[in-house]
Amino acid sequence: MKTVLVAALALLLATPALASQPVIVVQKGRMFHPDNITIRAGQTVYFENKDEFLHQIYVYKGNIDYDSREQPPGETLHITFPRRGTYEIRCHIHPTMRLTIHVR
Ligand SMILES: [Cu+2]
Fold first, then answer.
1. pLDDT by position in tens, the chain (length 104)
2. How far apart are CA 43 and CA 29, in angstroms?
């Protein structure tokens, strides 16, 4: 009985932690790394500019409006995805940069 309670408590504690766990995408060489990810609704994706020039991110496809300012080298931007769906992130400065995010 005690084992079951401990297991239930562990699950209860683990679930919100997982949902709020940050996901990191690196912008390097005019590409997103990785360029295809699957996350849970409510998770936040952090975008780290590891190039030596400006990037920018915007939601090209998906039910979120997001269009960032210019993102200098070394800077991190983030977007939270509260709803399920498939999203495509792009960069205005480098039109070939594409990232697909599946939110489950
Ligand atoms: Cu860019």
1. 555 544 444 444 555 555 567 899 999 999 999 999 999 999 999 999 999 999 999 999 999 999 999 999 999 999 999 999 999 999 999 999 999 999 99
2. 25
Residues surrounding ion ligand 1 at CB below 5 Å: 55, 91, 93-94
Neighbouring CB atoms inside 10 A of 25's CB total: 21
51, 88, 104, 18: CA torsion to nearest 10: 20
Task: Return d(Cα 27, Cα 56) in angstroms, integer.
Answer: 10
Ordered by start, the domain boundaries in the chain are 21-103
- How far is ligand 1, taken at its centre, from the CA of residue 38, in Å? 21
- In CATH, the architecture of 21-103 is Sandwich (2.60)
Distance 5 CA to ligand 1 centre (A): 49
